[in-house]
Recover the amino acids of this structure.
């Protein structure tokens, strides 16, 4: 499944406010490329945003006029022509019927193309009143009732071959492109734009992430990312609103189409967190990111989630203990494919883990690794044994070998003796040989203890069988 020069306004930003890093971006206003790869009516508003104006009603279907192009009129007339084109683009059409109002649809499309080109040429040429009307037109087109989600009309286990594609996308794409050009333009004055791109507007954008059309979610992801970068006043609100989406997904619906895209945005946000990390961000890790491992559909967004988790540990290695224990808390018991994903993420986290944090969680960690090594699913056992390909992992083990080897010795011996998959047996034998060569005395001691425990188990089994035989004999001899 699986970015940013910002204008910080006219005020000097305090160092503590900078929590979003923007490396030099290769794009300009002339070359913007979108290349990114539960339905509820509204989102809960944070405590400081309790009301939101209702979406404006759609304009009724009417005959629309064919307007001249911007280059064909005088410069003084372009502002009024811009407004007229906006009003034309407010007209809505039914795209389910491809033969209806074909001419009107084409007129609207051409006007949208011209509006995009006009904004790209410089927002400074657009009056504030026209900017307000432009955002109103954009709102009329993109803020709409989404069709029923696939999980509401089919069984969750049935996978659709093709994603849902909105038939109105030829027009929607141009509307999203217009909004994107407006947001990223260096001529956009954030003091003016924030009057129209306000909290309510951002909240409605976040609602649209439930769209099942991946093309729409890609545009939304790019636009929301740019808004976060350009409008610093919106940053806390955006983070809080995204948190609310995740809370509802984790604890209520476990169904949402845009979790992967939201996590991708957060990956860039986390990358820009300043150190030392704020307590707010640590709580976000503990209360949102780690519990996101719980839903059974985690495979749909695991790549983005794993990246966010790893970013936290790389920025502050002291968080490794909390992350590892969180993974163990939500470790899958019967879902083998999910367990393979968890082991891969664990490997990435261990690469950034220091010795102190490793020691605080090594007993439960290697107890789980031993269970994964013994898994009858060969991919799980293989992935667990591949952990020993990491030099950092071997180094952490060597510092705590007296505790670790006794935990996993039995799992290694059982695999060598009886695992059905030859590849797993071969990998297990290699790990076993490495331990025998590096820690011969401890390995021999573990071997003798394992042999004693095995002999003790056989003796217990023999006594149990003998007792059952006696019970059967006594039952047979008893009078009926």
């Amino acid at each position: 499944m699986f970015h940013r020069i910002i204008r910080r306004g006219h005020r000097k930003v305090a160092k503590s406010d900078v929590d979003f890093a923007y490396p030099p971006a290769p794009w300009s206003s002339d070359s913007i490329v979108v290349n990114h790869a539960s339905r509820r009516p509204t989102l809960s508003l944070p405590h400081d945003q309790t009301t939101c104006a209702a979406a404006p009603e759609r304009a009724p279907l009417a005959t629309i006029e064919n307007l001249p192009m911007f280059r064909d009129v005088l410069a003084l007339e372009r502002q009024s022509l811009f407004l007229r084109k906006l009003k034309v683009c407010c007209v809505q059409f039914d795209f389910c019927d491809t033969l209806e109002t074909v001419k009107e649809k084409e007129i609207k499309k051409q006007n949208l193309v011209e509006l995009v080109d006009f904004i790209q040429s410089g927002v400074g040429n657009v009056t504030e009143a026209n900017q307000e009307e432009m955002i109103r037109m954009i709102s009329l087109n993109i803020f709409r009732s989404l069709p029923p989600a696939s999980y509401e009309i089919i069984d969750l286990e049935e996978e659709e071959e093709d994603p849902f594609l909105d038939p109105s996308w030829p027009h929607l794409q141009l509307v999203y492109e217009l909004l994107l050009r407006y947001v990223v333009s260096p001529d956009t004055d954030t003091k003016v734009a924030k009057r129209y791109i306000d909290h309510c507007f951002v909240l409605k954008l976040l609602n649209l992430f439930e769209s099942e059309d991946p093309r729409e979610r890609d545009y939304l992801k790019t636009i929301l990312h740019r808004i976060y970068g350009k409008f610093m006043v919106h940053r806390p609100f955006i983070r809080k609103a995204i948190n609310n989406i995740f809370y509802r997904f984790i604890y209520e619906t476990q169904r949402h189409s845009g979790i992967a895209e939201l996590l991708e945005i957060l990956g860039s946000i986390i990358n820009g967190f300043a150190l030392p990390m704020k307590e707010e961000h640590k709580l976000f890790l503990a209360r949102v990111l780690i519990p996101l491992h719980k839903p059974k559909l985690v495979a749909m967004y695991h790549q983005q989630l794993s990246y966010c988790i790893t970013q936290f540990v790389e920025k502050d290695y002291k968080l490794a203990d909390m992350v590892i224990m969180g993974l163990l808390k939500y470790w899958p018991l019967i879902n083998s494919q999910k367990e393979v994903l968890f082991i891969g993420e664990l490997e990435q986290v261990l690469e950034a883990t220091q010795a102190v944090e490793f020691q605080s969680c090594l007993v439960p960690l290697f107890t789980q690794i031993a269970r994964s090594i013994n898994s009858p699913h060969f991919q799980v056992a293989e992935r667990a044994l591949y952990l020993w390909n990491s030099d950092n992992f071997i180094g952490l083990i060597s510092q705590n070998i007296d505790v670790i080897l006794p935990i996993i010795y039995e799992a290694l011996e059982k695999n060598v003796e009886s695992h059905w998959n030859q590849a797993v047996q071969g990998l297990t034998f290699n790990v076993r040989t490495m331990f025998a060569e590096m820690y011969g005395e401890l390995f021999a001691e573990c071997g003798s203890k394992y042999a004693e425990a095995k002999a003790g188990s056989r003796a217990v089994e023999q006594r149990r069988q003998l007792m059952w035989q006696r019970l059967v004999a006594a039952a047979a001899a008893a009078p009926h």
Summary: The chain is about 60% helix and 0% strand. The mean pLDDT is 85. The two ends are 69 Å apart (CA to CA). The CA atoms of residues 31 and 457 lie 71 Å apart.
